[in-house]
Amino acid sequence: MGRPPVLPVDKKLGLVVRVMSGDLTAAEAAREAGVSEQSVSNWRRQFIEGGRNGLAGEGGRDTEEASRMAELAKENAMLKTTIGELYLELRKYGRSAAVRPPQPRGRVRPGRLVN
Predict the structure, then answer these.
(1) Quick check: is 19 in a domain?
(2) Which positions fall inside the Insertion element IS150 protein InsJ-like helix-turn-helix domain (predicted)?
(3) Model's pTM, two decimal places?
């Protein structure tokens, strides 16, 4: 059997609801949609998991994804702090002429030494 066409979400939802209510079997729904029975079972599982996550207050996010987002937010805050500290250091040393590297005067040609 070849790859079935992508069905709109509303059609999948309608089939899953009809299967869960007992109006259709998974095999009948699969025949009606032109997909495998396994696809209908996957949709049903995804539907139930989505409802479970919504009721758990996760808003549809996987706990793994939520923990990764928290980790990235923490790392982002640390990097912003480090950048701020480095910026202050650069400003502090940037005002002193003694620490500035000498600036080349005039046109610099590759291969020539410039004092």
Answers:
(1) yes
(2) 12-57
(3) 0.47
d(CA 39, CA 8): 14
18 in the same domain as 34: yes
Query: How confident is the model at residue 15, as a pLDDT?
Result: 92
pLDDT digit string, tens, across residues 47-71? 998 888 778 775 555 677 888 899 9
The domain of 93 spans 63-97
Q: Are residues 46 and 79 in the same domain?
A: no
pLDDT score for 96 = 60
**Distance (Å, rounded) from C-alpha 42 to C-alpha 30?**
11
CB atoms within 10 A of CB 16: 21
Alpha helices in 1-115 (DSSP H): 9-21, 26-33, 37-55, 63-94
- Is 112 contained in some domain? no
Distance CA 30, CA 23 (A): 13
